[in-house]
Amino acid sequence: MTDTLHSVAPTARAGMEPAVRRALRANRLLAPVADHMPAILAIAGCVMLWQLVVWAFSVPTFMAPSPIAVLSAFRENGVILWNNLLPTLLEAAMGFVSGNLVAILLAVWFVYSPLAERAFYPIAVIIKSIPIIALAPILVLLVGNGIAPKIIIAGLISFFPTLVNMVQGLKSASPAMLDLMRVLSASNAEIFWKVRLPASLPFLFAALKIAATSSVMGAIVAEWIGSSYGLGALIIEATYNFRSPLLYATVVIAAALAVILFFVVAIVEKKVVRWKPGNHG
Amino acid sequence: MAMAQHKIDLQAPELAPPAVSVEHLHVRFGGGQSEFTALKDVSVTIPKGALVTMIGPSGCGKSTLLRCIADLVPVSDGTISVLGQTPRKAREGRDFAFVFQEATLLPWRSVLDNVRLPLEVGRRADTAAYADPERLLALVGLQGREKALPHELSGGQRQRVAIARALISRPRILLMDEPFGALDEITRDKLNEELLRIWKETGTTIVFVTHSIPEAVFLGEHVLMLAAHPGRVKAYIKVDLPTERTLAIRDTVEFIRITAHLRRLLEEC
């Protein structure tokens, strides 16, 4: 019976009318839109309500610009926004990569050396509990006012969730799995690459998704402390000059950047983690 | 050389080492005040090619004994010899394979890649002599599921994959620790029958731990019963049933007589 099904299916597809095929493709593209229709409608509703409130109460533009004013700010300041988006993206991405890399390597060290974990985990917690906004001026004094403090802050903010999750993930292999590897006389390196590391991936990606959005926040906060470029600097400048539509447009761009980075990580996760976590056979 | 070995086997069978020989085995866990004796003076011999089931009340150390043979638990006193070698040597030579209660499949690997895992790790002696993974999957009735991921399989199918993985190194001994304990009864019955078939086809020695008396009697040529506190041998019984067994044998008077006898012994433990 399976044979018949296999032989019928390809012929059916090959003989399909182009129109039918086009309709199927359109359906595949539209299906996600239909899925998110409630969210799209709710967002559109909120924006419309905002516009109506601004109109109805004649709110001054410097206090709260209407969505239409924000839209025209996008049009008028396109070049400025783009030129300030790129450095922030660069800082966030470099912070994301370096912070997570250090966290992953540290987690590996902690898993293989309980002494290192006991010694340095508390330090990681202490660094984590320093408010990031208080750390920024210190870093400016330490490493100057260039791109370095921004990368460090974006990295620090990415670092901690990844460290915690990665340690947990590397330890998540079940005792039975480790027994199996012992029966197979597997070396520690083999256990690491074949069992511990793949088992940690769902934990790692959960942290990376948090880090993707918070690294953008880290870069922006770092730019507030005496920077002349980047979305953070633009936010400060627009605020001081009462250019509220530009301020709002910058905030929208910053949020969009964070959301895009989040989805990039989510797409990579979908490609890499094809199994259901927590189900160890 | 293999032929000469074979000749010795024929002429003087007592010279060939048994599959497993355990002598005056003691296993103690912890130390000082919290010391706990898991096994006390256990001696047992499992001949080559046998299917021995091990049963006993919980805490009798049947899993511990199996794990000692597999070099997973250190021996406190006494000796274990696996095909005439230490358990460690036997482990490194892949002379035995182990099937756990959970299938312990790597969830990110396909069925085929899980079966192939022993080819990729450890000191694998002579992988050319290993069995063909695809044929093993056919042997356990999973042909066509090679590309499936473990979470797409049922519990019984996952355990079949684990058995195929254990058989890939053509082990001379198969150690099974309650492999079907977590499965429903219908699946379990089916796998019991298939295990008997695999045993006959491969000629592997099987040591099978279970907590079910009917399962122990249905599978076992011999039943090794352990008593608890401390774990020790209570009885080592030959099962007086024909070697060709189907599930229907469980309805015979003989089968019921043997299970009743074992149940009485178990109550004394």
Please describe the structure with a list of short key phrases separated by commas or semicolons.
heterodimer, A: 281 residues, mainly alpha, MetI-like fold, 12 helices, 83% helix, 0% strand, flat, B: 269 residues, alpha/beta, Rossmann fold, 2 domains, six-stranded mixed β-sheet, three-stranded antiparallel β-sheet, 10 helices, 22% strand, disordered N terminus, transport (chain A), ABC transporter permease (chain A), transmembrane (chain A), MetI-like_sf (chain A)
Structure description:
The complex is a heterodimer of chains A (281) and B (269). The model of chain A is unreliable at 1-14 (pLDDT under 50). Chain A is built from 12 helices and no strands. Chain A folds into 2 domains: 2-57, no CATH class; 67-272, Orthogonal Bundle (MetI-like fold), CATH 1.10.3720.10. Chain A has 281 residues and is an all-alpha fold. With 269 residues, chain B is of the alpha/beta class. Chain B folds into 2 domains: 17-95 and 172-269, P-loop containing nucleotide triphosphate hydrolases (Rossmann fold), CATH 3.40.50; 104-170, no CATH class. Chain B has helices spanning 2-11, 62-69, 87-92, 111-115, 117-120, 133-139, 155-167, 185-202, 213-219, 253-268, and strands at residues 20-29, 36-46, 51-55, 77-82, 96-99, 173-177, 205-209, 222-227, 232-238. The longest helix of chain B has 18 residues, at 185-202. The relative contact order of chain B is 0.17. Chain A binds chain B through residues 2, 174, 176-177, 179-187, 190, 194-195, 198, 201, 273-277, 279-281, and chain B through 70-72, 91-92, 94, 96-98, 100-108, 114, 117-118, 120-123, 144, 149-151, 158.
Q: What is Rg of chain B? A: 19 Å
Name the beta content range of chain A.
under 5%
Contiguous helical run count of chain B:
10
Instruction: Provide the domain count of chain A.
Output: 2
The percentage helix of chain A is over 70%
* Greatest contact between two chains: A-B, 26 and 30 residues
CA-to-CA gap between the ends of chain A? Answer: 29 Å
Return the average pLDDT of chain B rounded to an integer: 88
CATH class of the largest domain in chain B: Alpha Beta
Class from helix and strand fractions of chain A: mainly alpha
- What is the overall shape of chain A? flat
Helix count, DSSP H or I runs of 4 or more residues of chain A: 12
Q: What does the main sheet of chain A amount to?
A: none
CATH class of the largest domain in chain A: Mainly Alpha
Helix content class of chain B: 25-40%
- Radius of gyration of chain A (Å): 25 Å
